[in-house]
Specification:
single chain, 445 residues, Rhopdopsin 7-helix transmembrane proteins, Heat Shock Protein 90, five-stranded mixed β-sheet, two-stranded antiparallel ribbon, 13 helices, rod-shaped, disordered C terminus
């Protein structure tokens, strides 16, 4: 046998190592493994100490050492099972193993209770000793099922505890076989079990190091995800702030100016009630203000962050306007990816560019036909507007406010606007804007 002081020194070092791990990680498996080490130390200590008759003497009390021998052996299995279940996270990864081991633990506690009753009634008997053998066989059968099930998964973490447990299990079987026919007080056949316990500790320590690294990687991964989530939240906050600023600016510049005009016209109308043109101006300004408010509300509503809403808004504006001027308007919007998201700030600017282009065409082009094509795919948004009107000389019109505003809106979105025109040759406006947003699928209820 291995000298007791060497064995207890190894167990003490292992116990301290486990307690340190528990202190840092606060995981329940370390607690149960520390209890397992204490029980195993008591088991080997109990096997070695005592007088020649196998009696333990403590504080005036004498006890036959083979009585706690079986109980300590079974308790070591119970707490090793408790440790193993938590170490491999059996409840979530191996539900079948988890239930089997929990049932085994309860049955082993029941066996301990029966063993205590038998000892109380009959003392140490051969019958109680005979029961111990099939109990060990059942334990090995459970371990065989656990090993077979876990080996099929072939996961690195499981291999550490499986290898160590196999060594310990095999050493226990060898110890039982070598003890057949020997006096129960003899210990020379315990060497295999001692070696198995030490080897199991070595593999377990390797597994603990591996799992500690896994936990550290999980912590780093969680921190990375938190940082990414924080950055996403910051990005979202910036978007929300931009939306608020845009709404505030639009309300001040467009609606505020229109309301000021309506107020001024109302004062004039109060002084001169017989001025019908002033009433028309108030009506026109009111209509314009309502349209601008609707546009602001539409662009700020995230429910409209999809291509179909943009198409509807564009068609709603262009179709009646062209129809009123006898212009045949054709809008091709079949090449759309509905999974893409178009944020409000992009929708608003695209719509305003489209609106400006259609207004210019209706006012100045004298066209009979107008074709618009909208394409939205992962590469970006493309808009083409072509008419067969009289065109214009871009050397003289390029510096107009309308075209400047169109170019500025597109450039602010990181896009490109090109205008191809010549006198009597119509006009073709092309716009390309990159899109980096995609609508996330809603979670299942």
């Amino acid at each position: 046998m291995i000298p007791l002081y060497i064995l207890l020194t190894a167990f003490t070092a292992q116990f301290v190592y486990i307690v340190v791990n528990w202190f840092y990680f606060r995981r329940s498996e370390y607690f149960f493994y520390s209890i397992y080490i204490i029980i195993l130390s008591l088991y080997f200590l109990n096997r070695i100490i005592g007088d020649e008759q196998g009696m333990l003497h403590f504080a005036g009390i004498s006890l036959y050492k083979m009585y706690p021998d079986r109980i300590l052996a079974i308790l070591s299995y119970i707490y090793y099972f408790k440790f193993g279940r938590r170490f491999v996270e059996a409840e979530t990864r191996y539900p079948g193993i988890h239930k089997t081991m929990m049932l085994t633990e309860r049955l082993l506690f029941l066996y301990i209770g029966i063993d205590i009753i038998l000892f109380t009634l009959t003392g140490y008997s051969k019958f109680a000793n005979l029961i111990f053998i099939p109990v060990n066989v059942c334990i090995f059968l459970v371990l065989g099922y656990v090993f077979w099930t876990m080996l099929k998964r072939r996961e690195a973490l499981d291999k550490f505890i499986l290898t160590g447990s196999m060594f310990y299990g095999i050493s226990a079987v060898v110890t039982l076989i070598m003890g057949i026919g020997k006096d129960i007080l003899e210990n020379d056949h315990m060497l295999a079990l001692q070696i198995g316990a030490l080897v199991e500790m070595l593999f377990l320590n390797a597994g603990l190091v591996y799992k500690s690294r896994m936990l550290q990687q999980e912590i780093i991964s969680s921190q990375t995800q938190l940082i990414k989530q924080y950055e996403d939240n910051q990005h979202l906050m910036n978007r929300l702030n931009n939306i608020r600023e845009r709404i505030s600016r639009d309300l001040h510049d467009d609606v505020g100016a229109t309301l000021s005009s309506i107020k001024a016209y109302s004062e004039i109308l109060k002084i001169n009630p017989q001025a019908p043109s002033i009433a028309d101006l108030i009506r026109d300004n009111s209509t314009e203000m309502i349209e601008r408010l609707e546009l602001i509300a539409w662009s700020a509503n995230p429910e409209h962050d999809h291509p179909k809403s943009l198409v509807f808004q564009m068609q709603k504006f262009a179709a009646p306007l062209c129809h009123a001027r006898n212009i045949h308007f054709h809008f091709d919007h079949t090449a759309l990816d509905d999974t893409l998201m178009i944020p409000g700030e992009i929708r608003q600017q695209v719509y305003l560019v489209f609106k400006e282009a259609i207004n210019n065409m209706v006012k100045y082009a004298e066209a009979a036909n107008c074709n618009a094509v909208l394409r939205i795919d992962p590469r970006g948004l493309s808009l083409y507007i072509k008419d067969d009107g009289k065109g214009f000389d871009d050397r003289y019109v390029e510096h107009g406010n309308g075209l400047k505003n169109m170019r500025k809106r597109v450039e602010n979105l990181g896009g490109l606007l090109t205008i191809e025109t010549a006198p009597q040759q119509g006009t073709r406006i092309s716009m390309q804007i990159p899109l980096v947003y995609r609508i996330q699928e809603k979670a299942e209820p």
